[in-house]
Every structure is written in structure tokens, then in C-alpha cells.
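Illustration 12: POT family proton-dependent oligopeptide transporter.
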Amino acid sequence: MKDTRNWFGHPRGLTVLFLTNMWEQFSYFGMRALLVYFMTKQLMLGQAQASFIYGAYTACAYFTPIIGGVMVDRFLGKRRAIIIGASVMAAGHFMMAFEPLFYAALITIALGNGLFLPTLPSQVGDLYRRDDPRRGWAYNVYYVGINIGGFLAPLLCGTIGEVYGWHYGFGLAGLGMLAGLVIYLSGQPYLPPEPERIVAGEKRPFDRQTLLVLAGIGIAVTVFRAAYEQVGNTVALWADAGVDRHAAGLVIPMTWFQSLNPLFVMLLTPPLLAYWRRRAAAGHDQPPARRMAAGAVIVAAAYLLLATLAWTSGAGATAWGWLALFFVAFTFGELFILPTGLGLFARLAPPSLGTTTVGAWFLIIFSGSLSAGLVGSLWSRLEHGLFFLLLAGLAALAALLLLLLDPATERVDRTRRAV
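Figure caption equivalent — predicted structure in C-alpha cell form:
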């Protein structure tokens, strides 16, 4: 490690990666917030075509990281991949300012994302020894960066794009990507050294048990995301039609509720990390799969709350405070499972396949998003309370799968820590 001094109890490199990731997410979510409106209002595309393009783009954005991860581990190395990926993504955002380059711009951003997205979190684990207890918590800190960027992007890029012109909003997203790249380059002295890359013909250092554990975790998280991803889909529809959004004589915009999730991530992460640190100091640190299962149970309980509200409200509307309470519980459960899962994938990865393994985590997001789309298609066919009960059941099923995987996960994790 190049620098052993700490900031806020963690290596300085974590702050560098945190800020780099924050600005990358600002650029990604800023562009995404404008995309559908730009297609329907500026390019005059039909809703169905615009939705298809939006879905194809977001799917590719989470599929390319598995290909990019292989390229990083075999050929490019992490630093070069981040520099190339960030530059390509920034170019794609600026290309959005020119309507004839629209489709080329989307492809460019997705390709750059494939190199950038899995590489940055794989460097987080490289900052710590394998037996360092802070290693798992570091991904919760890193996760806050994702949500700060996701929280600010629609407010800034969305407002500028809507008020002053779509192209200005896209340009601001591109500047955010460049800001992240500048921070990353400036923070090189605090980042870990480049691990050795695998060469052609070299035996992959993955044992069968580790592969099975990662595959099992992937299946469980895919089931979980089928319920989790409904927040931006069917829950948003219910917030529009089934929630009384009047407060102090005003009507709360339904999109504001979408900002509650990243806001609560920022508010809940510090006390939760403090609690976990105290538990670890007392010798009661929770194994990762069990912690993830606890998060899935909490999310299941949050959806049970919505099911109860949908059944008890009848034809009336639910007070908006209940929806806010749902987001508190939902986000609290999310913090147990998603950052922990990302950290687990990074920790179980062999040094020469770190980026590829983290890329597999984003492939789970891809498969989970597809499964969420299939589940979401049932919204118009089921009574709303029954639909939310189904989501609770999916989250509970994911928790059960994670509990069944706990002994094997703990064995593999303990072995990796000892290496």
C-alpha cells in the first residue's frame, strides 16, 4: 500500500474512490434522468420506442461490466481501464449534445461504463488486508457515494436540462464525469498498487466451492432485486394513484419520493456503521450472508407494510407519511444486503480476477432488473395488496436462500481471509 495514513478511520484511497464514484454516478444518473424526456420531447419518439431504447440502454450499462472486467484483468489493468472508461463516458455525454450522434452516444457511454463500473469498486478491497474487519464496512461508505451522486444528479442535471435545454443537462453530466477522472488522477499516491494480471494459459485461481457460493449468492440477490427494483416502477405508480400527497396546502410531487431512498442511505449509513463497529469490537460481528439475509427480511417487512396499507385503505388514499416510513425501512434493509454483497464478491475474488468478479456482481443487477420487469408486469393483473405481498414473499425467499448459503459462505470467506 502506498499510503498507510487514515482519513476517518479508513485509508485515504477510500476517499479518492468515494469521490470518483460519486461524480461518475452523478454523470450516469444525470443523463438517465433526462433520457426519456429528451427522446419524447426533443426527438419526438413515441412512448413505446423511447421506453424500449431506455430499457436497452440501461440493460447494456449493467451487462458490459462483465466483458470489461475480463479485459481489465487480462489486458488493461485497473488504472488504465478507469482512465479509458471515464474518458469514453465523458465523450459519450458530450456527444449527446448533437442529435445525429444520439445512438452512437448511448453506445459510447455503455462501452465506457463497462470498463469503469467494475474496476473502481474492485480497488476498494485492495486498500485493506484480507483480514481487516474494515474491509466489509468500506463498501457501505463507498455505497454512500453512489447515492450522493444519484440524489444530486436529477436535481441539478434534470433542472438545468428542463429549464435551459436538454443539451446543457447532458453537458453538465459530462463535466461530472471529467470531475471524477480528475479526482482519480490526483489521488494516485493514495491508491493501491496494480495487482498482477493473468496471462493466456494460466490456471484460474478459483476453486469450485467459491464459484458455487458466488453463484448461489447471485441467484439469491437476483430474486431479491425482483422485489427491490419495484421502487422505481410499481411503487412509483402506487405513489401517484394510491397516496394522498397533500401537505401544508401543497401537493408533494411524486418524483420527490424517489429521492427519499438515496437521502436515507446518506442518513442511515453512519449510525449503522457505528453500530457494526461496536458489535465487531465486542466479538459479535455478523457473517456476510447472515447480514444480507437480515436485510432481505427487513425489505420483506417493508413490503408487508405496503400490502397492509393497500388492503386497509380500500378505495381511499394512503397518507404520504406511511410511504415515507416504507422508504425508511426499505433503505435500512438495503444497506444490509447490497453493499455487503458487493464487498463479498470483491473479497472472495482472487487478486488476478478481482475486476471480473466484481463485473459478475453487476451482471446480477442486469439479471435482477430483467426479473423485476417480469414481476412488474403483474401489477395490472393483481390486486395491489396481493402484489405487494408477492414482493414481500420474494424478499423473504431471498433471505431463506442466503441463510442456507451462510455456512458455505462463512467457510469460503474465512479461508480467503487467511490467505
